[in-house]
Design brief:
single chain, alpha/beta, Rossmann fold, Dihydrodipicolinate Reductase, domain 2, 2 domains, eight-stranded mixed β-sheet, six-stranded parallel β-sheet, 9 helices, binds NADP nicotinamide-adenine-dinucleotide phosphate
Length: 323
């Protein structure tokens, strides 16, 4: 049995804890800076142990894998600490603030033969895997265009991590990471890109558009913390097209021919909330003694982090402490 220890009792830690119920994983421990919060999670989800200090939990030898559920700006620090205590890691997206941090973490994990993976749950959803499989079988021919947007009109609480530059706030690391991973899954690395952004003077990006060019295809992508964007991703090919509804948490996709006739529907409702698939992948990798998932390898996370660095370079956006 794989025993998980969770760092940070926030919103996403709840989703993770809920999903664990339909996996073979075990909610062994949770650490929060506030012991009362940790106890609340213990009561709700049955954690065996609680800690009021992240490092104290990492010293616990019973933990097989740490789930890092803190804001992006802290992932690097928390992953390096977990590696110091020889822990395997599943770390929330965005993996780090930039590619340099991601490379440092991967090198350290490799040196110690530890498993590490970015929790980009979309990649493990059966609907997405089936769409990829059908595209590889050429159901829509060669891809010519992909469109994916992720944006909400959010009411800002200035204390929220989403708008705090010190925690890696902004639309790109929180939401943009999804369209970028999505485009990479189907089209790989672009040859070139163009981008525009709307920055807030506090030092975060509120909205952005980015267009990636490939040999014979284009990806039109955007993310926003201030605008509701279309949730349906579209992949067009020479023989048809695919619509993927709520693509980042996809449970349904439809395949059409060029005359707009529906030719196939793919539907895999979540067993719990969709996180169960990435958790199962972590468990499988640990059971097979793998240090990275073939579905979410280091190189993919590094590509995405580098791409986000390049976008920010064009916008002139740096996080506090970046050189
Ligand atoms: N996969 C997804 O669908 C998804 C969805 C939402 C978020 N996420 C990712 O999950 C991570 C956490 O997001 P969240 O929405 O759960 O955030 P959140 O509700 O703000 O929780 C983050 C937790 O991090 C801990 N923390 C430690 N130092 C902190 C600091 N200086 N400021 C704020 N929190 C601090 C806190 O836990 P304690 O107080 O208990 O120590 C806090 O509850 C982010 O990287 C985000 O991108 C993923």
């Amino acid at each position: 049995m794989v025993r998980f220890g969770v760092i940070g009792a926030g919103r996403i830690a709840k989703t993770f804890s809920e999903a664990m119920k339909v996996t073979k994983g075990y909610l062994y421990a949770i650490a929060s800076r506030d012991i009362l919060k940790a106890r609340k999670y213990q009561k709700a989800y049955g954690y065996e142990k609680v800690y009021d200090n992240y490092e104290e939990m990492l010293k616990d030898d019973n933990i097989d894998c740490v789930y890092i559920a803190t804001p992006h700006g802290l992932h690097f620090e928390h992953m390096m600490l977990a590696l110091k205590y020889h822990k395997n890691i599943l770390c929330e997206k965005s993996f780090t603030l930039n590619a340099k941090q991601a490379l440092t973490v991967f090198n350290k994990a490799k040196e110690n033969h530890l498993f590490i993976m970015e929790a980009m749950w979309t990649r493990f959803l059966p609907t997405i895997k089936e769409v990829k499989h059908r595209i590889d079988q050429s159901i829509i021919g060669e891809i010519t265009m992909l469109e994916a947007h992720f944006g909400f009109s959010m009411k800002f609480n200035r204390k929220d991590r989403l708008v705090n530059p010190n925690l890696g706030g902004g639309a790109l690391l929180d939401l943009g990471v999804y369209p970028i991973h999505f485009a990479h899954l189907f089209l790989g690395s672009p040859l070139s890109f163009e981008t525009k952004s709307h920055l807030d003077p506090i030092g975060i990006d509120l909205s952005e558009q980015y267009t990636f060019q490939y040999h014979n295809a284009i990806a039109i992508l955007s993310s926003s913390l201030e605008k509701q964007l279309d949730k349906v991703a579209l992949i067009k090919g020479t023989k048809g097209y695919i619509k993927i509804y709520d693509f980042w948490k996809a449970e349904k996709a439809q395949i059409f021919d060029l005359d707009h006739h529906l030719i196939e529907e793919i539907s895999y409702p979540h067993l719990k909330n969709g996180f169960e698939y990435e958790i199962n992948e972590v468990i499988r990798c640990l059971e097979e003694n793998l240090t990275e998932s073939p579905l979410m390898p280091y190189q993919t996370t590094l590509f995405v982090m580098k791409q986000m660095d390049e976008l920010r370079h064009v916008w002139g956006l740096k996080y506090p402490g970046e050189d």
